[in-house]
Write a structure and sequence with these properties.
The complex is a heterodimer. Chain A is an alpha/beta fold. Chain A is built from 8 helices and 8 strands; from the N terminus they run E-H-E-E-H-H-H-H-E-E-H-E-E-E-H-H. Chain A has helices at residues 10-23, 53-67, 69-80, 92-105, 119-141, 163-173, 218-232, 240-246; strands at residues 2-5, 30-33, 45-48, 145-146, 152-156, 179-183, 188-192, 198-202. In chain A, the strands form 2 sheets. In chain A, strands 4-5-6-7-8 form a 5-stranded mixed beta sheet, covered by helices on one side. A 3-stranded parallel beta sheet of chain A has the order 2-1-3. In chain A, helix 6 (163-173) links the parallel strand 5 (152-156) and strand 6. Chain B is an alpha/beta fold. Helices cover 41% and strands 8% of the residues of chain B. Chain B is built from 19 helices and 10 strands. In chain B, helix 4 packs across helix 5 (139-156), helix 5 (139-156) runs parallel beside helix 6 and helix 6 (173-180) crosses helix 8 (207-230). The radius of gyration of chain B is 24 Å and the shape is globular. The chains are: A alpha/beta, B alpha/beta. The interface between A and B is large, with 58 and 57 residues. Chain B: One of its GO terms (molecular function) is metal ion binding. Chain B: It comes from Roseburia zhanii. Chain B: This is DNA modification/repair radical SAM protein. Chain B: Keywords: Iron, Iron-sulfur, Metal-binding, S-adenosyl-L-methionine.
Chain lengths: 259, 450
């Protein structure tokens, strides 16, 4: 067995897919792994994969032209997912590789995503759902606050790499605003300038003190929002269990009204 | 026809002369009063329309709808749900804003509503605006104020987010139509399921003043659709459709009557949603029932479940309820209840059953049914596969076979299945599980209602 060990990122995994395919060892003898915990399997040869944006782009292009954009987006969401999911029966990178191999072998390749009883497809389904769900949750629960400079700033703690999903949504929604979405758990940020497209940048050197200087109106609108939030609840129907079921506790710290 | 033809220039005079009847509180106090006054309206969805921003203003909408937070009662907060004013010339006895009740009153200005909406929206607190109002001076006057606010928000602020607006019963059809071109969803509350109850509790409203504008909006939507097929750029009239709500438990109608009314509304008025609102006796009015167990939440829950069965599962009210069994089973959800009474259709074979048959199996929803139909083309499905697709096996296992086998050996017998379903405590509604006292009071509610 040959195991291609790739970095846990879209580029890393797609480069792994490229290298594995190009190696001609035969699909049966190949596995991909994005797990870098150091657990090794016996009787296997480990081949390190160095992320390469050219190779990754070629894999993306093949997927888009031969399997369609929906297929490509599903695979991307899956690659963006946090691979420490308990329900998972298969390595993330390996599931992606097996799925692409299976899809390219069939005439209507994109349909393989519907065959949920295949182990690799059910793994893709689970991971893609995980990313999409968290992405949707954060579209809901993310809160911007206005800094002194007029820039809108939001901080999130995401498990999956959902910044592209959020940035695309808010670029369409707030085209004239300057905003930054900072993902504290991945140390990445999406930056948007008025009337332009967004950029995703490394934010490990971001000066967080600067993001604590609010504009003069900010406090007022936060108070108004909390007033609204408290007044909208019906006392006779109070149900804290339902509330925390609908907005999981881990999102509370980054909101205004539940902090 | 363009938007400009339909919307005359903003007349400033309309909202300058709002009489300040009581006092003029600060924005914070106003917001507290007018939110509190709006909270019994249940509709807070932001779904039904996909619209991308045009890059010149602020906002877009997503057809799935987005809930931005959940209040202490667990209900979603999607829109800034406020009244324009809680002054009211009507005397509906179930409503806390009726002209006889002694409560603090307040009125927004259109500018205040616009500022709140835009500032909340850009901070991602809300998905848009839900604007309703008490009747100030006259229905026409009120409707015009609402129109002025929306016009300002859409044109001056170029707001392209979601707007849900109430049509005021009795307002001029022309005003309602103009407002409809600015809103995404419009609703007129039916309030009570029968005209008798309406006459008793809301003497200023009548079936006629409610149904007439509802029909008008329906016709507006149909005409607009035809217009849109001819001119793609024609302005959209209420693109997310219209909805309504009924108060549950204030009057003696049974579930069968309520669901029949809802079914009629879906069929004859093309409504997108009917909402059910468990009655809360806010005014302590002696003519209204006192509900010792709190608002009839379980009943409301069952009505919503049945409502979903009507809209997405191809059920009809006559299959679920009848004159002899006019109320829903409180222990079992309407679909399980139906399945137990129709065991002749079961068990269903996963490999071959069509989509509509799968939909009728308890534990299989619209999503998992369509996943099953697609996945079985690839290979044979077994119970663990179904579980991964989102089928709730603890309910479905009595009604399904995979390749001719059941999951466990079970009997296809009503009592047996019912006993097994209820032996799992989590399948019993929480209200009934928690205490016997509550259980008794719920039965009391039911007998009082029917």
């Amino acid at each position: 067995m040959y195991i291609f060990q790739c970095e846990d990122s879209i580029d890393g995994i797609f480069t792994g897919v490229y290298d594995a395919w190009a190696s001609h060892y035969g699909h049966k003898h190949i596995q991909l792994s994005s797990d870098n915990s150091g657990n090794l399997m016996l009787f296997s040869e480990y081949i390190p994969v160095i992320p390469d944006s050219d190779k990754s782009r070629k894999v993306s292009r093949t997927m888009i032209t031969r399997l369609g954009t929906d297929f490509y987006e599903t695979i991307c969401k899956c690659a963006m997912a946090d691979s420490h999911c308990r329900k998972l029966t298969m390595d993330k990178a390996n599931a992606i590789y097996q799925t692409i191999v299976m899809a390219l072998a069939l005439p209507e390749g994109a349909k393989v995503l519907e065959y949920l009883s295949e182990p690799c497809i059910s793994c893709i389904f689970e991971l893609c759902r995980q990313t999409a769900n968290e992405g949707h949750h954060l579209l809901e629960f993310l809160r911007f606050y206005e800094l002194k400079s007029g820039i809108l700033f939001a901080q999130i703690h995401a498990k999956n790499d959902v910044l592209p999903i959020l940035a695309t949504h808010f670029t369409d929604r707030l085209p004239l605003e300057n905003f930054i979405i900072y993902d504290a758990s991945h140390q990445m940020a999406a930056v948007h300038t008025s009337s332009k497209d967004y950029l995703i940048v490394d934010a490990s050197t971001l000066n967080l003190d600067l993001t604590k200087e609010y504009s003069s109106e900010e406090e007022g609108f936060r108070k108004l929002w909390c007033t609204f939030f408290d007044s909208i609840a019906i006392e006779a129907r109070k149900n804290p269990k339902l509330q925390s079921q609908n907005i999981p506790k881990r999102f509370w710290d980054d909101t205004v009204e539940l902090k | 026809m363009t938007a400009a033809d339909k919307t005359p220039a903003l007349s400033a005079s309309a909202y300058k002369n709002i009489p300040s009847v009581h006092f003029s509180p600060s924005l914070m106090e106003k917001l507290a009063i007018l939110t509190d006054a709006a909270k019994y309206d249940v509709a807070c969805t932001s779904s039904g329309v996909d619209r991308r921003g045009d890059g010149t203003g602020i906002g877009n909408t997503m057809s799935c709808g987005i809930c931005h937070t959940f209040a202490a009662d667990g209900r979603c907060v999607s829109l800034l749900k406020i009244l324009f004013t809680n002054e009211c010339i009507f005397n509906c006895s179930y409503c806390q804003n009726n002209c006889n009740s002694d409560i603090p009153r307040a009125t927004f200005t259109p500018e205040e509503i616009c500022t709140l909406t835009i500032e909340f929206y850009r901070r991602n607190y809300i998905e848009g605006l839900f604007l309703s109002s008490g009747i100030i001076i006259s229905p026409n006057y009120t409707m015009d104020l609402i129109y002025q606010t929306l016009y300002r928000l859409r044109t001056v602020y170029r707001f392209q987010g979601y707007i849900h607006v109430k049509a005021i019963p009795g307002a001029d059809p022309l005003l309602i139509e103009k407002t409809g071109y600015l809103a995404d969803r419009m609703s007129i509350n039916l309030e009570l399921p029968t005209s008798d109850s309406l006459r008793k509790l809301a003497p200023c409203k009548s079936r006629n003043t409610i149904l007439k504008p509802m029909r008008m909006i329906q016709n507006g939507i149909t005409d607009n659709k035809q217009e849109l097929t001819v001119y793609r750029k024609a302005p959209k009239f209420v693109p997310a459709g219209q909805s309504t709500q009924m108060i549950i438990g204030a009057t003696p109608e049974n579930d069968f009557q309520i669901m029949s009314v809802a079914e009629g509304l879906y069929r004859n008025f093309d409504l997108k949603r009917v909402f059910y609102s468990a009655f809360v006796n806010v005014n302590h009015n002696s003519g209204l029932p006192v509900l010792p167990g709190g608002p009839p939440l379980l009943r409301e829950h069952r009505l919503y479940q049945a409502d979903w069965l009507l809209r997405y599962y191809h059920f009809t009210v006559n299959e679920l309820l009848s004159e002899d069994r006019p109320n829903f089973n409180i222990y079992l959800d309407p679909k399980c209840d139906w399945a137990l009474r129709h065991l002749e259709y079961f068990p269903v074979e996963v490999q071959t059953a069509d989509y509509k048959t799968l939909l009728r199996v308890p534990g299989i929803g619209a999503k998992s049914a369509s996943r099953i139909v697609k996945a079985r083309r690839g290979s044979r499905l077994d119970f663990p596969d179904l579980k991964k697709m989102g089928v709730v096996l603890k309910r479905a296992l009595y009604f399904l076979t995979c390749s001719g086998r059941m999951m466990y050996p079970t009997k296809l017998d009503e009592d047996y299945i019912c006993r097994n379903l209820l032996s799992d405590r989590t399948q019993i509604p929480q209200d009934l599980r928690e205490s016997n006292y509550k259980q008794l009071s719920l039965f009391d509610d039911m007998s009082m209602i029917s």
